[in-house]
Amino acid sequence: EPEVTQTPSHQVTQMGQEVILRCVPISNHLYFYWYRQILGQKVEFLVSFYNNEISEKSEIFDDQFSVERPDGSNFTLKIRSTKLEDSAMYFCASSERGASSNQPQHFGDGTRLSIL
Amino acid sequence: QKEVEQDPGPLSVPEGAIVSLNCTYSNSAFQYFMWYRQYSRKGPELLMYTYSSGNKEDGRFTAQVDKSSKYISLFIRDSQPSDSATYLCAMRARAAGNKLTFGGGTRVLVKP
Known about the structure:
The complex is a heterodimer.
Chain A: E1 5-7, E2 10-13, E3 19-24, E4 31-37, E5 43-50, E6 53-57, E7 65-68, E8 75-79, E9 88-95, E10 106-107, E11 111-115
Parallel strand pairs in A: 2-11
Antiparallel strand pairs in A: 1-3, 3-8, 4-5, 4-9, 5-6, 7-8, 9-10, 9-11
Chain B: E1 4-6, E2 11-14, E3 19-25, E4 30-38, E5 45-51, E6 54-58, E7 61-66, E8 71-76, E9 85-93, E10 101-102, E11 106-111
Parallel strand pairs in B: 2-11
Antiparallel strand pairs in B: 1-3, 3-8, 4-5, 4-9, 6-7, 7-8, 9-10, 9-11
């Protein structure tokens, strides 16, 4: 069964450094998402992306965050200057179509980001 | 009041028992309801996806939605040790686009 793949599985970064998390969505999917889960807390929506544009973002997704689809397969989340509170699991998800089509979102196994 | 509430557990049951999980929510605009299973150090895996009120069955899993009570349930029949995981409910409002709102998850332990 096709799946969303994320790399790396664990990223350790010094505070203030830039970090890029990578995702390969399911190949025929058109909508892409990032969520995060701080240890012991709920999974939280960050951003959705369609047709090379951000379609929605949460209050968490401030100017330190950006997303990009640099080629036909990868979808990336960049955090420009990491803070301690950015430490979390970051999940990428994709769906075949968007909200109006009732298509579910499928998640990758996440990247554990640890900020020192 | 939290938007989506879920008892964190842990819920411990003997193998073969029925596991009963539920979530309550406060936003009456939620119309799409999902249950995900999450094993340790893995991503959420979609189990069930329902729209509006009613029941849906898939193998050993049954999802129920009661919009009038703002209450959703997941039942797992003939539970197996491999069902031991955290179960997350998630919801979406039609007007909220693609954003999913998650519950905090219930940890389930099925003992052999």
